[in-house]
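Please decode residue identities from the backbone states below.
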């Protein structure tokens, strides 16, 4: 099924975000990505924006609206890590990660929801992490920011659910990206042992779930957390 709906993905210039954009392009969407640097995949519009900057985000949305039409699907994917054990984690390490990962999602969703309410249609998809509910040593900041997305999606569902708008969370586990490739081989092997599937996900396996959530078949799913983690976070 192809669609001509417009989707905006934050952080679409690499990793999972890039794969999400590719998958939406392949499914016939009009696709825009935000990036601080670099470009999204072929066939999509790349707009410059930092999710911590309200004015830049507003300008990016305006550009997308002018060139591709109102944003009907938004995927809040942009995220950073600053891993550090709790006692060594600075205020800045904590604040910067939360402001980007959780604050960034808030700013993007707030801006997108205006058009969605007018259209009485919207798909809000927040990219969390297995770590959000499973926890991760050295990731108090990252884990907190990713867990916060669950409360955000559920509150948005209660506020906007009657207007044809859904808000869901996708929680990937370990995914084969540049970030995981940098881990030492021994560490990667250790992680694989803890994953029932015995392997990392390909970025497209995460992207396909997100594209499905954006479509008509998922219209009655909202406030859900969908793990794409090979069974790593079961029960969370």
């Amino acid at each position: 099924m192809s669609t001509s709906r417009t989707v905006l993905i934050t952080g679409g210039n690499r990793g999972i975000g890039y794969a999400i954009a590719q998958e939406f392009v392949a499914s016939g969407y009009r696709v825009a990505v935000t990036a601080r640097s670099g470009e999204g995949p072929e066939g999509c519009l790349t707009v410059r924006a930092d999710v911590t900057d309200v004015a830049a985000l507003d300008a990016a949305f305006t550009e997308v609206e002018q060139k591709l039409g109102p944003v009907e699907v938004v995927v809040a994917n942009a995220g950073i890590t600053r891993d550090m054990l709790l006692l060594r984690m600075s205020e800045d390490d904590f604040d910067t990660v939360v402001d980007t990962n959780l604050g960034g999602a808030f700013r993007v969703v707030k801006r997108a929801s205006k058009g969605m309410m007018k259209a009485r249609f919207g798909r809000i998809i927040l990219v969390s992490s297995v770590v959000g509910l499973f926890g991760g040593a050295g990731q108090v900041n990252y884990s907190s920011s990713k867990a916060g997305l669950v409360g955000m999606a559920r509150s948005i569902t209660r506020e906007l659910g009657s207007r044809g708008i859904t808000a869901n969370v996708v929680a990937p586990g370990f995914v084969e990206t540049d970030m995981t490739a940098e881990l030492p081989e021994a560490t990667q092997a250790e992680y694989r042992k803890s994953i029932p599937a015995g392997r990392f996900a390909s970025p497209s396996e995460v992207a396909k779930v997100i594209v499905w959530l954006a479509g008509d078949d998922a219209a009655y799913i909202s406030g859900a957390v969908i793990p794409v983690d090979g069974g790593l976070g079961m029960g969370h």
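Observation: Strands lie at 6-10, 30-35, 45-48, 73-76, 122-127, 165-172, 225-228.
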